[in-house]
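Q: What structure does this chain adopt?
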Amino acid sequence: MCYRYWVEKSPEFGSIVDEMNHSPLLHKWQEMNRIKSSGEIRRTDIVPVIGPNRLGKRTIFPMKWGFSGKSLLINARSETAGNKPTFKDSWENRRCIVPASWYFEWEHLLGADGKVRTGNKYRIQPKNSAMTWLCGLYRIENGLPVFVILTREPGENIRFIHNRMPLILPESCINDWIRPDTKPEELLSRAMTDMAFEKLA
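A:
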């Protein structure tokens, strides 16, 4: 899954944050205290997200993490999002990329009683990469953009941690992913699954 991720302060993130800070949407958010540009990111935080503007140009927008509903939705399965009423339109027309340094996952351990308990916390990112480009979907709620992060089957080397991981693409695929005329299914084979991970105290 993906319940939290981290944004490290860096020159690359600095340029992303700077562009977000010039977005006219920024001051439309009433929950200004939830705007985060570094550190640990949690559900309902407002963060920099890459998407197309009305002319189709790659742009940074402030978006809130989570689709509203009976309960807050923060993830969607990439295998089924295109068929689910909640996500189908966004899957086809409104895709985004969430820049991160890495994401966090807690080890899920199956006990003798058949119940799952939480184990160690891990920091995870693609091998040999300083950036993690999380694939997402967005929609408009009350005139403002909100997003979910897509998940998939985990890579073999992190399967022991959890049975899901975020859908992550290389930087070279960002523009294709966010284009509304792209068929997202055609990019799924480019997903990055060879992860570096570190157990945290």
